[in-house]
Amino acid sequence: MFAYIVRRVLATIPVMAIVALFVFSLLYIAPGDPAAVIAGDQATPADVERIRASLGLDRPFLVRFGEWVFRILRGDLGVSIFTNLPVTRMIAQRIEPTLSLMVVTLFLAISIAVPMGVVAAWKAGSWIDRAVMAFAVLGFSVPVFVVGYLLAYYFALELDWFPVQGYTPFAEGLGPWLSNLVLPSVALGGVYIALIARITRATMLEVLQQDYIRTARAKGAGQGTMLFVHALKNAAVPIVTVIGIGVALLIGGAVVTESVFAIPGLGRLTVDAILRRDYPVIQGVILLFSFVYVLVNLLIDLSYTLFDPRIRY
Amino acid sequence: MYRRHLLGATAGLAAATALPRFAIGQGTGGSAARVLKFVPQADLAVADPIITTAYVTRNHSYLIWDTLYGFDEDYKPQPQMVQGHVVEENGRRVTMTLRDGLKFHDGEPVRARDCVASIQRWAKRDALGQVMMTVVDELSAPDDKTILFRLKQPFPLLFEALGKPSTPVCFMMPERLAKTDATTAVKEMIGSGPFRFKPDERVPGARVVYERFADYVPRADGPVSWTAGPKKVNFDRIEWHVMPDAATAANALQNGEVDWWEQPPGDLQALLRRNRNVNLEIQDPTGLMGMARFNHLHPPFNNPAIRRALLGAVSQADFMTAVIGTDKSLWREGVGVFPPDTPLATDAGMEVLTSRRDYDKVKADLAAAGYKGEKVVLIAASDFPSLNALAQVGHDMLKKCGLNVEFVSTDWGSVVQRRASKEPPEKGGWSMFFTFWSGVDMFNPGVQQALRGNGQSAWFGWPTAPRLEELRNAWFEAPDLEAQKAIARDIQLQAFQDVPYLPCGQYFQAWAYRRNLTGVLKGLPMFWNVQRNA
């Protein structure tokens, strides 16, 4: 097991190297000029040229790439072209809101979607099953920002239960922290709930046909025990896999959700950086996202051993 | 878990999440009453007001830095950091004396040499500053209180140059910061303005925080107006909350989570007007002036007759309706090269824009001018709704005129890169783009970059218009306002001959703020004088 983890961790190095090269090259050939954005609309071409030179953006690709890689190897993601702040600091400022949003969404989605899927499979063909599937279709179909606006209008403006926007750090208390996260998490969780509920239902339907389920029933196991202990555990591997894959979905959805609810997270940082062509920030954030994705997949692979003792690494 | 345990836990969670609303509800009392929450037009991407001309940076800078002269609602410079000045030797020697008690946020006194270094750095970036420096023989600080200008010839616009609110503004920084190269951002936000910058609380893209500078001494005299007069502060803390989504900002304002929103878009203004707790007011009478900028280097717009022909196609009402809506109190047509109701505004030659629009005639004029179907590449920024609206109407206008248009819809970051290209349109260059300028950046020939005709050194588009340059130079030497007006009239007439750009109208951006705020100043969003009533 340990050797497997080491191998997988080592395997992330070439993956990250390819991502780094890809991101840097893509940004190099993409149109846009941070010097022109910094200078502003009223600046003259000569002003823009001088700023470009002072930022070192007029140097050749290989020189800039070499410097960037060298800095990354020392753990330095560089400095934002616009704010002059270290990229690591900017990421550190933004990571808590995004992480909070993802954790609460994940928690909410799993707690709702898994029981929904299990019940839908148990009552397959009934109105409950159809209702769950209808909800899943709705969850997939309605864009996150539409759900976000509706929730903000009703629960914040009309009922005044939650704030419209913003983020309160966890250090300032569980209540304020959650209060800012409930609406965005529900908005972001819709697609995720739909995805997990559908895969849970499909997997459970298959498992519920297995002989050992019939045996459990014959032994007199209660409905709850049979569904959530015997069946769900055996259906867990594909569900966990989808949850892992869905992290990418969450990262993408966080960009929209953070904009709609003005949450100062990594999603908004990424969009702002892309619009301004703040290359060091874009590169840093994408590297981080790639690393998180690789890490999540590793954890998912390792978690298989918990659910299925036959899987060994 | 037993059912009652689950219900208990759920109730606990509900109680916990209910707490913050109670806390938010307390926002109008206690220390929160001394905090002003403001939603700026955009994120503060660049904090140095000299290296960028971004308006959001200028507005941020007025909190931190002070100016030698302010600008009042009559567009006149008024002493701000200076106690007064003496003009001698027929205008060739100007001595300015700093007020007592001026102090930087790091505790150091403001000295004349700080001001000299600041003026020198600013003048490297500012068009009017550059002209000013051509007539400056000596700019020095004989002592800590005195700034001395020795001029080769009288420069009547000296005080206007030092006090104008158009970007870049001549802000006074400590000498150690002002010595920074004019194209490199300063590393510290240390000024002598009424607020201190809080770098530790800044979250780029989300929040900027300022706190009241206790040692700031406002002027004792003069009415408060625009950036002039006593800057009396009534809040301990100003928070800028960046909200990229307009609907979110509207909701936050209605819910009382923020106090002031700088740029509510036209389509949300009706909603906000219906809210009795929200006030919408147009505070900047100079508005925003739309323009279509030509690339003068390449066909077809290197031909002045073609550019002139297109003046007959411009419907400023169409442009402005697309930008801000049908409410005519929010926009103006019949707008020339200077903002209406400002000192140099003139109706000279305006019939080219106000006469009946006749596309058949425009087509005939284009043909007579020699248009042969050359491709026109129109680059448009789709991520700025107002610019996108201008470009969409412009695209339609060009097609109606029978031009062979390629519409390139992209983001602003790509537009600003591509417009810097001097290549022909078919090789990655461009023919036309649309933009807005603040009225204060257009109200005289000294600040208006788009009117320059200095060829390769001009603003993007690079028009060569020697007569416009001559008139501009004459304007600098005009002895009084009447003489300036006469030259401005000639400039507008000449501009309709050279057509460096197509004027597309003027619109006014209302600010939305909670009704319990009073003392909001006209002009730019300023954070002194404003206060919250109970």
From TrEMBL, chain A:
<feature type="transmembrane region" description="Helical">
    <location>
        <begin position="99"/>
        <end position="122"/>
    </location>
</feature>
<keyword id="KW-0812">Transmembrane</keyword>
<comment type="similarity">
    <text>Belongs to the binding-protein-dependent transport system permease family.</text>
</comment>
<dbReference type="GO" id="GO:0005886">
    <property type="term" value="C:plasma membrane"/>
</dbReference>
<keyword id="KW-1133">Transmembrane helix</keyword>
<feature type="transmembrane region" description="Helical">
    <location>
        <begin position="9"/>
        <end position="30"/>
    </location>
</feature>
<dbReference type="InterPro" id="IPR045621">
    <property type="entry name" value="BPD_transp_1_N"/>
</dbReference>
<feature type="transmembrane region" description="Helical">
    <location>
        <begin position="281"/>
        <end position="307"/>
    </location>
</feature>
<feature type="transmembrane region" description="Helical">
    <location>
        <begin position="177"/>
        <end position="197"/>
    </location>
</feature>
<dbReference type="Pfam" id="PF19300">
    <property type="entry name" value="BPD_transp_1_N"/>
</dbReference>
<feature type="transmembrane region" description="Helical">
    <location>
        <begin position="235"/>
        <end position="261"/>
    </location>
</feature>
<keyword id="KW-0472">Membrane</keyword>
<dbReference type="InterPro" id="IPR035906">
    <property type="entry name" value="MetI-like_sf"/>
</dbReference>
<feature type="transmembrane region" description="Helical">
    <location>
        <begin position="134"/>
        <end position="157"/>
    </location>
</feature>
<keyword id="KW-1003">Cell membrane</keyword>
<feature type="domain" description="ABC transmembrane type-1">
    <location>
        <begin position="95"/>
        <end position="304"/>
    </location>
</feature>
<dbReference type="InterPro" id="IPR000515">
    <property type="entry name" value="MetI-like"/>
</dbReference>
<keyword id="KW-0813">Transport</keyword>
<protein>
    <submittedName>
        <fullName>Peptide ABC transporter</fullName>
    </submittedName>
</protein>
<dbReference type="Pfam" id="PF00528">
    <property type="entry name" value="BPD_transp_1"/>
</dbReference>
<dbReference type="GO" id="GO:0071916">
    <property type="term" value="F:dipeptide transmembrane transporter activity"/>
</dbReference>
Automatic annotation (TrEMBL), chain B:
<feature type="domain" description="Solute-binding protein family 5">
    <location>
        <begin position="76"/>
        <end position="455"/>
    </location>
</feature>
<dbReference type="InterPro" id="IPR000914">
    <property type="entry name" value="SBP_5_dom"/>
</dbReference>
<dbReference type="GO" id="GO:1904680">
    <property type="term" value="F:peptide transmembrane transporter activity"/>
</dbReference>
<dbReference type="Pfam" id="PF00496">
    <property type="entry name" value="SBP_bac_5"/>
</dbReference>
<dbReference type="InterPro" id="IPR030678">
    <property type="entry name" value="Peptide/Ni-bd"/>
</dbReference>
<comment type="similarity">
    <text>Belongs to the bacterial solute-binding protein 5 family.</text>
</comment>
<protein>
    <submittedName>
        <fullName>ABC transporter substrate-binding protein</fullName>
    </submittedName>
</protein>
<keyword id="KW-0732">Signal</keyword>
<dbReference type="InterPro" id="IPR039424">
    <property type="entry name" value="SBP_5"/>
</dbReference>
<dbReference type="GO" id="GO:0030288">
    <property type="term" value="C:outer membrane-bounded periplasmic space"/>
</dbReference>
<dbReference type="GO" id="GO:0015833">
    <property type="term" value="P:peptide transport"/>
</dbReference>
<dbReference type="GO" id="GO:0043190">
    <property type="term" value="C:ATP-binding cassette (ABC) transporter complex"/>
</dbReference>
